[in-house]
Design brief:
21 helices, Four Helix Bundle (Hemerythrin (Met), subunit A), alpha/beta, ribonucleoprotein, binds guanosine-5'-diphosphate, 449 residues, 8-stranded mixed beta sheet, 9% strand, 8 strands, 434 Repressor (Amino-terminal Domain), Rossmann fold
């Protein structure tokens, strides 16, 4: 596995602990590591150079605050600069699509064959229909592959949008104009035009899509690029950017294991905002692009936000609030609450898939723990609680030898396991008592001290 940038810098800075400021001499070696990390993440060299220059300028003279080491301080600068170069400083609305035109708003899709254009048309149609409540029409101007037209028809139907049928005997410009005419007559608010891609950059293809662009003057021209392309993304982006006035980029296949360096390269070459990220083959696998998260991914710092988000999604917020409320007003924490907590942990997704999203250093720390095993245990605990009567759940103190035997038999486990769970519950209950006394901070301090 690739080393985390933080870890690599930590190795370099061991010798310079205690330095109070980032200087030319103490950052030179660290910047070499930053450059390596970016190249390993498949960022193209010119983009790496520009970023390093920016980082150098911002880092010089920066104070190393508090308990940070110079390496950590530098990582902070790199992370911030990288995120802002990728798009964080474009503001929140940078990834919004523009509809400020006479309807229909036309979106033209450009990119190589296999980049994910057709799939992205389906995703956009679904997103626009469901989230933006738009009436959407799609059309394929790919007159080379009949299968591509069929594929677009299928994804459009899946997205619940309308499809304008065409044949390979039509001309791309005529197709686009006919679809536009149809969209106007039938009051579509958005028309998405899919185009032919080739396997490589091709002059005839560029002229063809430029002609379609000139004919319908789309308000959005989106360049779709596969994140797995790595360094090659640069040449492709340059060719399309030269041929067409792009308005934005869609970076696809970010669910793969690429580090996403293409994001920086493509931004560097086109200067256009990355509006969306493709994160699965399915039609709901489209996300608004998040530059800060992308910067963390490129630097190998894990997708912490994604983790937090999936935790929030899975958690029953109302149940969590109810529990918090109960503890605050001095209610007793009983087995029912314990069970609800277990269920919430399960909702957050499998532990091992959550682990995948953690930064490398946490993954390392936890690699000793057997996640599958932990999950199995959680299910068994739930089985035990399910075998209790409502009264037992409310008053676990009642559970003595004969009840334990009955519960163990019901859950298909040994009595020892029931004992263990009751002991864990006891621990949890006394922890909750401390929390009740407003002791959260106290407890945290206790853990640290
Ligand atoms: P086009 O030739 O540019 O129209 O590309 P397609 O839409 O046909 O996509 C090519 C392949 O990439 C298909 O197998 C898609 O399912 C797949 N694909 C597209 N977007 C994504 C994505 O975000 N994630 C993943 N995993 N696969 C994708």
């Amino acid at each position: 596995m690739l080393d985390n940038l933080t870890q690599r810098l930590a190795k370099v800075v061991k010798t310079m602990r205690g330095e109070a400021r980032l200087t030319e001499s103490n950052t030179a070696e660290m910047l070499r590591e930053v450059r390596m990390a970016l190249l390993e993440a498949d960022v193209a060299l010119p983009a790496v150079r520009e970023l390093i220059a920016r980082v150098k300028e911002k880092a010089l003279g920066e104070d190393v605050i508090g308990s940070l080491t110079p390496g950590q301080a530098l990582v902070g600068v790199v992370q911030k600069e990288l995120a802002s170069v990728i798009g964080a400083d474009l503001g929140e609305n940078a990834s919004e699509l523009n509809f400020a035109t006479q309807p229909p708003a036309i979106i033209l899709m450009a990119g190589l064959q296999g980049a994910g254009k057709t799939t992205t048309v389906g995703k956009l149609a679904l997103y626009l229909r469901e989230k933006k409540k738009k009436k959407v029409l799609t059309v394929s101007a790919d007159v080379y592959r009949p299968a591509a037209i069929g594929q677009l028809e299928t994804v459009t139907a899946q997205a619940g949008a309308d499809f304008f049928p065409t044949t390979i005997n039509d001309k791309p410009v005529d197709i686009a104009l006919a679809a536009l005419d149809w969209a106007k007559k039938h009051h579509h608010e958005v028309l998405i035009i899919d185009t032919a891609g080739r396997l490589g950059i091709d002059e005839a293809m560029m002229q063809e899509i430029a002609a379609v662009h000139a004919a319908v003057k789309p308000i959005e021209t989106l360049f779709v690029v596969d994140a797995m392309l790595g360094q090659d993304a640069v040449n492709t982006a340059k060719a399309f950017n030269d041929a067409l006035p792009l308005t934005g980029v869609v970076l696809t296949k970010l669910d793969g294991d690429s580090r996403g360096g293409a994001a920086l390269s493509v931004r560097h070459v086109t200067g256009k905002p990355i509006k969306f990220a493709g994160v699965s083959e399915k039609l709901d696998g489209l996300e608004a692009f998040d530059a800060t998260r992308m910067a963390n991914r490129i630097l190998g710092m894990g997708d912490i936000l994604a983790l937090v988000e999936s935790a929030q999604k899975g958690m029953d917020i109302e149940a969590a609030k109810g529990l918090a409320e109960k503890i605050k007003v001095g209610g007793k924490f009983d087995m029912n609450d314990f069970k609800a907590q277990l269920a919430q942990m399960k909702n957050m997704g499998s532990l091992s898939s959550l682990m995948d999203k953690l930064p490398a250093q946490f993954q390392q720390a936890a690699s000793g723990a057997n996640m599958d095993n932990a999950e199995k245990q959680m299910r068994r605990m739930e089985g035990i609680i399910n075998s209790m009567t409502p009264l037992e759940r409310a008053k676990p103190d009642l559970i003595k030898a004969s009840r334990k035997r009955r519960i163990a038999a019901g859950a298909g486990v040994q009595i020892q396991e029931v004992n263990r769970m009751l002991a864990q519950f006891d621990q949890m209950q006394s922890m909750m008592k401390k929390l009740k006394g407003g002791g959260m901070m106290k407890m945290m301090r206790g853990l640290k001290g």
